[in-house]
Design a protein that fits this description.
InterPro entries: DnaJ_domain (IPR001623), J_dom_sf (IPR036869). Pfam families: DnaJ. It is built from nine helices and two strands; from the N terminus they run αααααααβααβ. It is an all-alpha fold. α2 packs across α4, α4 packs across α5 and α8 runs antiparallel to α9.
Length: 233
Amino acid sequence: MASSSPTLTGYKSPAVEEDTEKQSRERKAALSSIPYGSLLLVLNDANLEDAIIAARPKIVDSWLKDELSSAKREDFESYREKLSSVKQIEKISHEVCNEWKRGKRKTSAEIANKISEHQEVIEFFVEYALDQCMLNIESSRREAREEIERILSVQQQHGNEYEILGIDKRLTRSQLRQRRREILSAVHPDKNKDAEAKNCAQAVNDAIDTLLEQNKTFYEPPVGYPQGSEAHK
């Protein structure tokens, strides 16, 4: 009588196990190459991980434009709490659902539950967003200091109003006022603690007032004024 072979439930041949381990190593390496990507290893779901990675740029861009638009470094801890709220998790879940490309799509509610179970996933979004916010803050500070140095240099060379304002092309009155707003957003002493901020802001206001008092329809730099100034964008 032929003997029956035992059923080996869950058995994997050495070759299959080796392939699985290789895929796992490759997945870990891929996630590690993404900022904070290793935090997603807790999910153990490649399809969900991919959708989360794809959703992050849109979520972070949205936060930078809205929730983090006026953030300061010293307030980051409070923003961590705000960006980890139920409302934000729902926002993330909706975007992740939209980015789902492979396998059976999870609902927004299922994704929200999964995210809520793993603080690491929230950190994947929040910490990266705060990093980008910090870069923006530092960039704004550098640009503001460069603008102050530009104005100081013009003053030292006894430059004219157009040079103070960095105007290198024809402007209307409304564009002239807009130029003032652009510069003051960087050098106004209420926003910039640089010792020269007040002086530069006053120089900008004086230059604008002098030009506007001429009551022209268009304002053009004097003949011979250097064209292509990088100060006016």
